[in-house]
Amino acid sequence: NGPTGTGKEVLARTIHNNSARAAKPFIAINCAALPETMLEALLFGHQKGAFTGASSGGEGFFRAADGGTILLDEIAEMPVQLQAKLLRVLQEREVVPIGASVPQRIDVRVIACANRDLQDEVAAGRFRSDLYYRLAVFPLTTKRLAERRQDIPALAATMILRHAGNRCTIPWPTAEAIDALGRHDWPGNVRELENVIQRALLFAAGDTIDAGHIVFDRAVTPAPIMRPTADSGTVANDTETLGNIVQMSEFAAIRETLRACGGSRIETARRLGISERTLRYRLAKAREQGEDITRTVSA
What we know:
- This protein is mostly helical.
- The protein has 13 helices and nine strands.
């Protein structure tokens, strides 16, 4: 487990590359980015004609990763019904493609990631306890970048070397630039650091990256304080921005629609006129802002 942008996939790749499976495939799957209706076929495969539009068979990610490693990122977003099928795959080490009757053996290391506490999800009934204990053989936790500031200089150096391209002289950060990086609170974690380094490389024309080249997207501000008005309504304080107002309204619309649909994301996305992928992105964005809409609706 660990917050978004803390390098969970990098850690998973490192485990794979330093194991006996290194020569075999490494396949990373984001469960939140795949259509819920197609997730089973994408994971376990399907036969030709198994469902409408299945003009040819598909082996699925598990069979494609045979002998290697499969990373199931954002596993907390997996529907409960599919969790039962995943549990069977892990227990029996075999998959049954949609439309098939004969199971097929697989040999795959499974690494699962989540940006929410899975024990809390189990307690709330959103994640199967038997699947959790099947997965939690060797749990690891990645920390927020703000909790490991000592890693920032080394991470920045790695990213500079990665993104400097074919420049004759690689610009190096000054002590002031490193200090500026160390003082930031990094809400976007390592992913945000990489963006800041890429931006600094664009600004730095010489052989050094100065503090002035370190530009952050925005400072983290506290949630707006609402004050009452004469008509008993509420308005945001003077520091409220249009972007925040739009985002708050968007989250409220998703929350109410999800509640009206009994928690069904497919129906919620249909009513809102957006794709399931967009809905999952918005839900993840809300969690980053400190609001777990799914948990609020099910409470």
